[in-house]
Amino acid sequence: MISRESVLQLLQEKQHSAGGYTGDDIIEFAKIFGVTPRGLRRRIINLINSDNEFKQFIYPGKKKPTITLFEFFKIEQELESNPIQIKKKMH
Fold first, then answer.
1. All residues at 6 or more sequence positions from 63 whose CB lies less than 8 Å from its CB, including other chains
2. How many domains does the chain have?
C-alpha cells in the first residue's frame, strides 16, 4: 500500500510549486510508486475524504491550465473595472 506520508509529501511539493496537482502529476507519481494512475487517484480520493490534511490540495484538472495565475488575475481585474469591455488581445 502507498504510504500516506509519501503521498502527502508529493502533493505538498506540487501545491507549493504549481498551486495544485494535475492528472499528469498523478501519472508521474504513479510511476514513482510503481502503481497504476487509477489506483493512485483512488488512494488520493480516499485520503481527501478521510484526512483533513489532504483537503487543502487543489486539483485544477487533468492538464495544467494554459494561462498563468497572474494572467487570470489580470483578466479578472479588468473585468471588474469594466465588465462590458470588448475582448482584446492581452499583452
1. 22, 23, 24
2. 1
Residue with cell 506520508: 5
Domain membership of residue 47 (yes or no) is yes
Whether residue 88 lies inside any domain: the answer is no
Q: What is the pLDDT averaged over residues 46-54?
A: 90
The 10s digit of each residue's pLDDT in 5-24 is 999 999 999 888 888 888 88
Q: Which of 60, 49, 54 is nearest to 20 (CA)?
A: 60
Cα(60)–Cα(78) distance, integer angstroms = 23
As given in the structure block, the three cell numbers for residue 81 are 473595472
DSSP state of 66: S
The sign of the CA dihedral 81, 84, 87, 88 is: negative
